[in-house]
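User: Hello! I'm new to structural biology and keep hearing that structure can be predicted from sequence alone. Could you demonstrate with D-malate dehydrogenase (decarboxylating)? Please show me the input and the output so I can see what each looks like.

Assistant: Of course. The first part below is the input, the amino acid sequence of D-malate dehydrogenase (decarboxylating). The second part is the output, the predicted structure written as tokens.
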Amino acid sequence: MKKFEVACMPGDGIGVEVVPEAMRVLEAVAKIHGGLMFSFDTFYWNCDYYVQHGRMMPEDGLDRLSQYDSVFLGAIGDVTKVPDHISVWESILTIRREFEQALNIRPAKIIQGVHSPLVNPKDFDLIVVRENSEGEYSTVGGKMYRGKDEIAVQNNFFSRRAMSEAMHYAFDLAKKRKGHVTSATKSNGIYHSMPFWDEVFQEVSTDYPHIQTDSQHIDALVAFFVTDPSRFDVIVASNLFGDILTDLGAGIMGSVGIAPAANINLNGKYPSMFEPVHGSAPDIAGKGIANPIGQIWTAKLMLDHFGETELGDLVMDAIEKVIQSGRTTKDIGGTLSTKEVTVEILSELNNY
Ligand code: ATP
Ligand code: MG
């Protein structure tokens, strides 16, 4: 019997509503598989915990989480109790940093039945692999005076190792998909870092002779995202470019309530963390109407990460059937509650 040990952190707001739904889906696919089980431990380290203890998690919190195969997170944030810069910084951002989760992965796909702002939404099915530890988001630089004028200098930071790891991950993903990787670059405008990025991309691509590649300047790339998304399969991008592309992708998908994400540790020393794109959504928390699909799709990414891609595909298939037939929550045009959507997904899974 294969066993995956998962640390669940529902967090705040709708996180506590959607995480248990995704756990039910994981239990269901484990049953379908027959030779696999999940053991879940749930940690209620959230803003209420902060109010009681003055911190977002216990002192040995990271040590405890590090024992698991992965962290499955809902959402953190309740500004009525803790300012976001404290709650998010001390939990999610600390975990990402300390567990060396150097990549952020976000699939974006238009599912028939969801209203997308794209005029011609078919063919939008891609994954953005974002380098998440360096690049443009560096602290190197500063503010100073030049003559009487005030200026700021911001240095980007690109290591061959981090770029190469992100790119290898993208190529490996493409092997399991349509076999195409696009590099998001801007070497016609950014003088040092982006030509280096291009050079490493060129080198890494020689390890994958069967994968097609292209390089797009980020400005042209965002336009093609909207006008001709069929060009894309896997896109590998630096921290800043990836940040912009992933939010654009979530916007095009039609609702933040269905968008999934993963933070991947590449060195195997620590768990990866799976969390949907949406936040704690205080405006709808406690009403039972949050869309659980973002969390359930995120669970599918965790299955893929564990190597259980067939089970991941089953979950995706069930999600698509439920959305296509309008059995959804209000944010994507349906009338069902959070729990009712899960019941529909489970009943689709029961057909296998
Ligand atoms: P973050 O915590 O990342 O800063 P945010 O506060 O910017 O997030 P969210 O909490 O994601 O934003 O909420 C943005 C909007 O999307 C809200 O109106 C919220 O109700 C809606 N929303 C978010 N997640 C869901 C969901 N799962 N189902 C339905 N609506 C959602
Ligand atoms: Mg928020």
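User: So the tokens describe the shape?

Assistant: Right, they're a compact way of writing down the 3D structure. Reading them back into a model, for example: The domain at 116-253 is CATH 3.40.718.10 (Isopropylmalate Dehydrogenase).
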